[in-house]
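--- STAGE predict ---
source: upstream dedup step, 1 unique chain passed
mode: sequence only
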Amino acid sequence: MTNKPRPGLAIAALSLGTALNPLNSSMIAVALVVLRQDFALDVATVTWVITSFYLASAAGQPLMGRLADRFGPRRLFTFGMAVVAVSCLLAPFSPNFALVCVARALMAVGTATAYPCAVVMVSTLSRQANISSTRPLGRIQMANTSAAAVGPVVGGLLVSLVGWQALFAINVPISLLALIVVQRVAPPDVGRESGKLSALLRDSDIPGILAFIASLTLAMMALLNVMPAYRWWFIAVAVVLAGLFAWREFRFSPPFLDLRLLGRNRPLLLLYLGFAVFSAVYYFAFFGLPQLLQQAGKYDAGVVGLLMLPLAAMSVFMTPVTVRFIERFGVRSVMIAGVVLLALASGALGVLTLSFWPPLVLVLTALMGVPYGVVSTASNQGLYVSARPEDRGVAAGIFQTCRYLGAITATVLIGVLYGPGVNQANWGLMVLVMLGLSAVVFVLALAWRKPGAVGPVALDRLSG
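--- STAGE serialize ---
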């Protein structure tokens, strides 16, 4: 198949592929009741359709990123979209719920290739289009945010009109379209590894990869409390495997994850930590506020969905605006401003301890969407300039895993704070936690510096 570079079209197709992960992460929520009825499941069992996707995505993102670095992003993106198409084509015919969860996990692995591959290709696409890297990264971020926002709406329509099977079927044409366009117009993979399969496997640090995936999966299972009786066993084994993983990485060449280099890359570590904590603040609002409005405010679920819509809509709107600000003022300045807005928006949510007046809720959710769009976009660009070009794939994968860790942490803390009851008093405690976490993100944003920058102006400016 001939390859004629068309960077604008390639960025659009990559954005379409990256949208599949957040889209499927959010729209499945509306299918839980139907899945319970069709397969005669209890509440605890049906949540595995969500858990399997989260676990596979979080563990798969760094691995897919490393494979993109080694063997080429276009090749891996094509493979990932093919996995999505096949798994989603077969899933609607699953005779039991276990196979549905397997299909969800395979879909997660396939969609996990998209974001790291897109980040790896950004530099080449930016050069071809003669634009700064902030613009394609902004489009990718917009696709992610938009997909997460429309997921529940799209999912609700598909489930009500067709059934849960449609949530899988819709991915087939989307993934095939992304695959075909990227294969035709994206830049070819050059300078990547090739050779005999046995040699590639020997140099792939398979034990390190397995230890990493197993440790992360067990830790997340403990956080998600999927098997309460084994929670502490999961934590203990995860710690042991993490130790073995570190021991292996310090002794194997080339390692799956160069811990020495990562330890020396202070900007990247600060970015990861800041993005994980920021994600926790955001998901406090994203997951905690709907419960408050439904149970304490007595709003119908459909009304709550409408009240939450400004959060996602404002996030999408702020993405291109933030891109322009980054090009003018630099990543660090925009990131710090976004975190200040995060603290202000989090504090404003405390007004809900006094009133659930609908116009007030709409204003507050829209206000919360502003820092999400700003900080997410700035963090994406910060990742790009913090990671070495040859490591951007695995760096992008770990970045996405930080998002999942933040979301899961927020879910766990929401369960603790709402344990005594979902009411305005406990929401007030949640707002205080959000303010505390916002302060942590602010300190980390202040400490972040673009690698290699010198001088007060260069610290904030992007190369090129």
